[in-house]
Amino acid sequence: MARTGKASAGGRGFWRVARKRFLQLLLVLILLPPVLTVIYSVVPPISTLMIGRYVQFLWVDRQWVPLEEISPSLIRSVITSEDSGFCQNNGVEWDVLHEQVEALSEGERPRGASTITMQTAKNLFLWGERSYIRKVLELPLAMMLDAILTKRRILEIYLNIAEWGEGIFGAEAAAQAWFGKPAKDLSQVEAARLATALPNPRGRNSAKPSSGHRRLAATNLARVKVAGPIFDCVLGK
Questions:
Q1: Are the CB atoms for 162 and 123 separated by under 8 Å?
Q2: Which of 53, 66, 73, 189 could form a disulfide with 58 if both were Cys (CB 3.0 to 4.6 A apart)?
C-alpha cells in the first residue's frame, strides 16, 4: 500500500514538472518572436530557410544592403507584384483573406493572400512548406511585425531575405547573380523580372526569362506606371 502511494505521488510529481516545463517552453515560444523583432529593428536578420541551408552545409549567398542601396524600380515592382496595399494594411489584407476563405469553402482553389509582411513573418519565424497551420500562424506574426517595425524596415528586411534562386537570398545577391550589377543599378525591366520571379524563384530565371515570365514582367511594368501613391510609405511622395 505504501509503495502504491509513493508511486502515485511520484507520478503526480512527474506530471507537475512536465506541465511546468511545457508552460515555460510555451512562454518562450510566445515571447521569442517579439524579442527577436525588436532586435531585428537594428540587426540584419537571416531567414529560417537560410538557417536550414547553413545546418546542411549548403551554399548561401546573401549580401545585406540598406534600402537606400536598392533600386527604387525594384521596390516599386515588388510592392506592385506582391502587395499593392502594403503601405495601407496592418500586415494582413483581411478582405482578400476573407475572399480566399470563401473560395476554399466553395471548393475552389484559393489564390495566395499573403502580404509582404506575412511573407516576411514566414521567412523569419516559420517553415517553407505550405500548410493551413503555417498560414494561421502568419497572421498574428505579421500584425506583430507591423506594430513593432516601420514599413521601411519591414520592406528592407523582406528584400534582404527573399529567395531569388538556389542559395541566393536578398536583392543584392540576386542582382549580382542574375545581372552582374549592384541592386541599386537595376533597370526597370530587370527589376520587373526579379519581382515577378518571387512566386517561383527556383523555376524562373530572371536573366533568361521564359516567354511567360517576360509577359509577367511586362504586365508588372504597366501596373507600376499606373499604380498611384502606393509606394509613399517607403519612397516618399
A1: yes
A2: 53
